[in-house]
Specification:
Strand order of the largest sheet: 1-2-3-4-5-6-7-8
Shape: globular
Number of strands: 9
Radius of gyration: 17 Å
Strand content: 15-25%
Largest sheet: 8 strands, parallel, barrel
Structural class: alpha/beta
Order of helices and strands: EHHEHEHEHHEHEHEHEEHH
Helix content: 40-55%
Distance between the termini: 39 Å
CATH topology: TIM Barrel
Number of domains: 1
CATH architecture: Alpha-Beta Barrel
Number of helices: 11
Length: 284
């Protein structure tokens, strides 16, 4: 089995819930420090309503000032307008859409029902195809939800099958939006997904409680998952999920576990430390 980890660094996820404005120049400097690290992908910004996520209203301006890098850029979208705008930028490689298997959260997060989201994805997929962009789907509330909506591994797999059949999806990010996942659940779900969909790419997008990272990462790796979304320092979370933010999976935890599990990655650790120092200044 391939022992190289694929890492998507998520500064967008880290910044989006912060109330105080982060100056555009500061964002650009931080993102350029991340581009120097050698991450496979960078979730750098979003083209969503400025009213919903005011912190990221300068994403287009930030994009125009990013350095050239082998790292592929990922932008989050939540409606047709955002998809068209994001797809118009040559520099952006991937459009990410949060598709929740919880109806309640889909409405909270994108103001759409699941049926409306499926209709929207027709247009999003078309924008991706016409502009040669990849489409990434976040399976939000993929490990359960706090709203009492139905959840099961079978329901999750049914949605994967339906979406995979109807849309040209590059990758599914199995998203634990509220830190509900347990190691045994991670291992079971990724094992099942790998068995039932051997030719489909899956990633772990885990929001976690500090101190719980190691067990979750190890369980995912043991189940064959090699793609992880992380944020330096574990900063961030989803402001649409609940009142208290739960942090992202920290990049440091993944790097540490990669040594223990004898996994490899593409990161320049010296550049990573420089970016890490900048992150602590911004987010503290």
């Amino acid at each position: 089995m391939n022992n190289e980890l694929i890492i998507t660094e998520c500064p967008r996820d880290a910044m989006q819930g912060i109330q105080d404005w982060i100056p555009t120049a500061t964002k650009v400097s931080y993102l350029n420090s991340l581009l120097a690290c050698g991450f496979d992908y960078l979730d750098f910004g979003s083209f969503v309503s400025a009213k919903a996520i005011p912190q990221l209203k300068d994403t287009a301006e930030v994009l125009s000032q990013l350095n050239t890098s082998a790292t592929k850029l990922l932008a989050i979208i939540a409606n047709e307008r955002g998809a068209k705008e994001a797809a118009s930028f040559e520099r952006i490689d991937i459009l990410g859409y949060p598709f929740s298997i919880s109806e309640t959260f889909q409405k909270r997060n994108t103001n759409k029902s699941l049926e409306q989201s499926l209709l929207l994805m027709e247009n999003v997929a078309d924008s991706c195809t016409r502009n040669k962009k990849l489409l990434r789907i976040y399976l939000s509330m993929g490990f359960g939800n706090p709203y009492g909506d139905p959840w099961s591994a079978e329901l999750l797999c049914n949605w994967v099958e339906k979406l995979h059949q109807h849309f040209p999806i590059f990758e599914f990010a199995l998203s634990d939006t509220i830190a509900a996942a347990q190691p045994s659940q991670c291992k079971s779900l990724f094992t099942d997904l790998k068995q039932f969909f051997p030719n489909v790419r899956f990633a772990a997008h885990l929001h976690v409680i500090s101190g719980k990272e190691a067990g979750l990462i190890e369980a995912c790796i043991d189940a064959g998952c090699r793609n992880f979304d992380t944020a330096i320092g574990g900063y961030g979370g989803c402001p649409m999920a609940k009142d208290d933010l739960t942090g992202n999976l920290s990049t440091e935890s993944l790097i540490q576990l990669s040594k223990m599990k004898k996994m490899t990655h593409k990161l320049d650790l010296q550049a990573f430390e420089l970016a890490r120092n900048t992150a602590h200044l911004i987010f503290n």
